[in-house]
Amino acid sequence: MGTKITGIHAIEEALKNASRGSTLYLLRGDRRNSSLEMKAISNGKTAVKKVSETELAKLAGTQDHRGAVLDLGVRSTQSQGGRIREMSVLDFCKSLEEGQGALVLALDEITDPHNLGAIFRSADQFSASLIIVPERRSAGANETVIRVSSGAAQYVTMATVTNLARELDVLKEYGFWVYGADMDGESSYGTQFSKRSVLVMGSEGSGMRSLVRAKCDHIVSIPMSGHIDSLNVSVAAGILMYEFRRSNPV
Question: Are 55 and 1 spatial neighbours (Cβ–Cβ below 8 Å)?
Answer without folding.
Answer: no
